[in-house]
């Protein structure tokens, strides 16, 4: 499998790292954003690594965070901070796993070092399934926001009536399709690497709308809603799903001993950003806040349009970066004599069609991202790093505070997986 050409700086271009042995590619997921690949000769500074981690943690999850708070109530903010703390700690465990074995360079490598080929396979499966559903979520997000901008638009093709949202999903899929055929995604890389900037613009626009465009912050909200806690925790977890890219960022650093400090800064800044969006969004719209806060905004206001247009641009650029690792991994299943270019076109087109069909069949952004957060993000970002560290370090054989703490995190993660996944599936089925 060919490594993707990427000449851009690590500060602006996304990561698409080639994984050796089985030819699997590793990529950041979003609300998941990707960051640029580095050769061993091009080491990055602490600042660039900090930017890259921030970019990885900044994604479409920020749009759903007010809905998560509305689902769980004010006290669920404690769970947001708990998820952030657990995700930060699991990031440190990934660093320790890599320090224990210098041959580890990617996320699947950690799984293989801990549990052999099965570990590599499980880690890779979680990454690729999450990428697939995040790409699907992009299409749903585009359909929702375009319908919000043009509510009266309907489509009729050959006598067949197509609703506005469904029509927009199909149109966006057609627009995105050529980007999946590209061999060089460096141009899209620069656009998609603006996750930090996009999140800041959206947050600023939301606050401006509330403060100066007549909406205000008058809703008091609910202290706690027990029924909505699983949904809230699942969406909180979706915001912290950058861990599969941490190994590559760590190996790319000039000063690796500073990586823990980078994680502290990035997790604190991102958590402040997410908490701010959740609080302001909930105060603005209360229990009526939708799964994407942009759907609540008055479209006639300039600040609202800035937030909506920013929301619309990034997913179009990111879509190809999400599915390209899946395309390249799938190509390894075919004999080496097959035409790689034809396979790329075929697999890429199939993925676009399939994600569009899933988006049309399950057009529920909040419920789908809740499912991704509960089942995939918790597993890939918290449970797997903890289990791999226990195995690689060998501390599972020794009873102590560290072992107990890690097992507590694992058990909490498993609880979220069970209840969050169940709640999300029931919610999706109930909407069908």
Give me the secondary-structure topology.
Layout: E1 16-18, E2 25-27, H1 46-57, H2 61-72, H3 77-100, H4 107-149, E3 155-157, E4 160-162, H5 164-180, H6 186-192, H7 195-212, H8 229-238, H9 246-251, H10 259-285, H11 302-331, H12 340-361, H13 365-393, H14 401-431
Task: Briefly characterize the structure.
The protein is mainly α and 432 residues long. Helices cover 67% and strands 3% of the residues. It has a single domain, classed as Up-down Bundle (Amino acid/polyamine transporter I), CATH 1.20.1740.
Strand count, sense and closure of the main sheet? 2 strands, antiparallel
Strand order of the largest sheet: 1-2
Please indicate the percent range of residues in DSSP E strands (runs of 2 or more).
under 5%
Q: State the end-to-end distance.
A: 40 Å
Q: Which value, in Å, is the CA radius of gyration?
A: 21 Å
- N-to-C SSE string, H for helix and E for strand: EEHHHHEEHHHHHHHHHH
| Helicity, as a percent range | 55-70%
How many strand segments?
4
User: Number of folding domains?
Assistant: 1
Q: What is the mean pLDDT? A: 85
CATH class: Mainly Alpha
Total helical elements: 14
CATH topology: Amino acid/polyamine transporter I
CATH architecture: Up-down Bundle
Per the principal axes of the C-alpha atoms, what is the gross shape? globular
Protein structure class: mainly alpha
Domain Amino acid transporter transmembrane: 42-424
Membrane topology: Multi-pass membrane protein
Transmembrane segments: 49-68, 74-94, 115-140, 160-180, 187-208, 228-250, 262-286, 306-330, 342-365, 371-392, 404-425
Keywords: Amino-acid transport, Membrane, Transmembrane, Transmembrane helix, Transport
